[in-house]
Amino acid sequence: xxxxxxxxxxxxxxxxxxxxxxxxxxxxxxxxxxxxxxxxxxxxxxxxxxxxxxxxxxxxxxxxxxxxxxxxxxxxxxxxxxxxxxxxxxxxxxxxxxxxxxxxxxxxxxxxxxxxxxxxxxxxxxxxxxxxxxxxxxxxxxxxxxxxxxxxxxxxxxxxxxxxxxxxxxxxxxxxxxxxxxxxxxxxxxxxxxxxxxxxxxxxxxxxxxxxxxxxxxxxxxxxxxxxxxxxxxxxxxxxxxxxxxxxxxxxxxxxxxxxxxxxxxxxxxxxxxxxxxxxxxxxxxxxxxxxxxxxxxxx
Amino acid sequence: xxxxxxxxxxxxxxxxxxxxxxxxxxxxxxxxxxxxxxxxxxxxxxxxxxxxxxxxxxxxxxxxxxxxxxxxxxxxxxxxxxxxxxxxxxxxxxxxxxxxxxxxxxxxxxxxxxxxxxxxxxxxxxxxxxxxxxxxxxxxxxxxxxxxxxxxxxxxxxxxxxxxxxxxxxxxxxxxxxxxxxxxxxxxxxxxxxxxxxxxxxxxxxxxxxxxxxxxxxxxxxxxxxxxxxxxxxxxxxxxxxxxxxxxxxxxxxxxxxxxxxxxxxxxxxxxxxxxxxxxxxxxxxxxxxxxxxxxxxxxxxxxxxxxxxxxxxxxxxxxxxxxxxxxxxxxxxxxxxxxxxxxxxxxxxxxxxxxxxxxxxxxxxxxxxxxxxxxxxxxxxxxxxxxxxxxxxxxxxxxxxxxxxxxxxxxxxxxxxxxxxxxxxxxxxxxxxxxxxxxxxxxxxxx
Lengths: 300, 448
Known about the structure:
The complex is a heterodimer. Chain A is of the alpha/beta class. Helices cover 36% and strands 30% of the residues of chain A.
């Protein structure tokens, strides 16, 4: 199973440390989320991966060997801002990018047409890029990224400017790509997308990896245990409960340290309280993200 | 197709489709033709309006031969000055094509001798001036032989410039013939009228080895002018191409296309591709200009090019291409460091000055001493080599080994320039909104 390993990467711009000993791994067949606040070092990391910047030290290995130009040619890179020639026709731009990745003109033309059709943009090829909406331009950019059938996908904010329909289309596409065994790195600020798509994540803050691993494991590690309960019993007075707040008909209960949801359920049953709804609530990734960044800021 | 080829092809196609390129390429010859056409046609129109530049002439000094009494009702007789010598010579050089015929007819019209209308006295001449029959007249006063002065009268609306000047020259020729008539033998009189006949002139050149060779002075001028023209064309090509190039680079940088491109091609490949594509667009532009400028070509270029030795032409071409590659690379490299389009242009222009100023300031020395210390220093120093060597080659006195050294030095310069420029390009293109510091530039170049 191909693996992309970032090992002890360091990069500084003068006195500013953009990356400090960054160390993580991305596996094929998964959608890997790279999250972090603005200026955290995500773009620097992606630019090093794409060979646009040289690290001060550290390596990026693909299956144990340093990533080279040949690997980069098998990579599809979607930059955060739209990298398209605004005054040229969509077909011309796509064919040019395809040919830069080694496709023959004929093949690039055919694939451009196929991808535009698949992404819901048939007939757009003859139009100039600057006549398209923001969302359509983003879809063209996505087509340009996928045109040469890349084995590695590096996507920086791929959902920016997309309407809900296109968002679903791209999400399905990314799932399909990872199922096909491709290595997919998704860098975004949209936490719900990460929760929905990613198997594992790395959170980067001020050049440091502050969270890394399976999404569920991170949640378990970082999140407090919460349950949503609909009961006739008094929850606040229970020893297992740290605090409780009303959320409509339900009560959101934050359990005391060490207490498990099943302990609360057993206690309510033992006390003869009626329980009409009992749901373990997952801490949103966004909350974990904000808490982690604030803790880091407070520490520094 | 290689990556360099892909970039070059795209660069060429996008450049030749630019509106500004099309306007400059096809509009320039049109505007130049219009400008020179107007310059030439206005005097021609004025002459046509004047009815063959008829000029009044009153001879109160009795210098000119007595002419028969004019027919009844006519107060004037006509005199025509001799055809000027250079016209016949120029006609020879125009060749026989349709453009040459057109140019010849035009020149004949321009250089046709003045028609003098003899008028009996000042009053008749003033009357002719008043009623518009003539626009100017000359009066030879009674004391002309003593003073040599000729009075000139012209109406307020008479055109100044070429027409008046040529009328006076023709009058001088007429007077000179009249004054010498009967005083000198006919053959001597003809020679005194035209002491040097340029069509019969033979010039000799003494070679360094002592041999004497006949030379055509026009050929010599052409041989020196054509390399200078190459130098000017090189500078023009650099200026226009660099403009398109930097405009394109700034666009790619601003809309982040460059990030996508640089994941597929190395900065050096990108640089070479852009240079080749734009060089081809520049050559196409020059070809269009040369083709459209057929009229001027019939008069000057076609004949001048016939004088050009193939070896000098080939030499100029080599230095043109190498010069374009070297200076173009440096312009792209430094231009990429600019944080906006204007700053990029300013940074890049430094190179065009560095390349052109030294040889253009010293070109007289280069022509006089093409193998002197200064000529060799500038000719072997890559940045100044292209223009310097073109000027030196024009003298036809530069030894082959000397040219070889200059070519080798320039090839090395091109390789170094591409290397440096690729490093700067890689650094500058990923910097947004600010210029890299000197330290960053040095570090980048060291890494490269």
